[in-house]
Design a protein that fits this description.
Layout lengths: L8 E4 L17 E5 L3 E7 L8 E6 L2 E7 L12 E7 L11 E5 L2 E7 L16
Protein name: SHSP domain-containing protein
Pfam families: HSP20
Family: Belongs to the small heat shock protein (HSP20) family.
Length: 127
């Protein structure tokens, strides 16, 4: 898990959610990877297509939601997923987040601000 995200993540399971466990060491249905340029989040949402998934950034929170359609032949509730990830807005380019849904897996890329671009980092001239 990334340095910036480790203490910032919060999971919520909606009723009827499958494949999710709050005690799973890798959060069950999503994993993160961090490199110098971005944080990459991979969310497993089997049974859902891109038309069932919504991703938005609300202030400093990345919200991932997915809800499948109820099968009229089955009595089960539709598949539902929700995940909220706190992202410090002063460390990421919130307006440059990209998301792609393919084969039941959502991949979200959250670009980082370079140190010189951050408004909360001040370079001090040494005299």
């Amino acid at each position: 898990m990334g340095r910036l995200l480790a203490p910032l993540m919060e999971d919520k399971a909606a009723p009827g959610t499958t494949g999710f466990s709050t005690t799973a060491p890798r959060r069950g249905w999503w994993v993160t990877k961090e490199d110098d340029g971005a944080v990459h989040i991979k969310v497993s949402m089997p049974g859902l297509g891109k038309e069932h998934v919504k991703v938005c950034a609300e202030q400093n929170i990345l919200v991932v939601k997915g809800e499948g359609e109820k099968d009229p032949e089955e009595d089960a509730a539709p598949l539902r997923y929700i995940c909220r990830i706190n992202l410090p807005a002063d460390a990421f380019k919130m307006d440059k987040i990209k998301a792609e849904m393919k084969n039941g897996v959502l991949r979200v890329t959250v670009p980082k601000l370079k140190e010189e671009e951050r408004k909360d980092v001040f370079q001090i001239k040494v005299e």
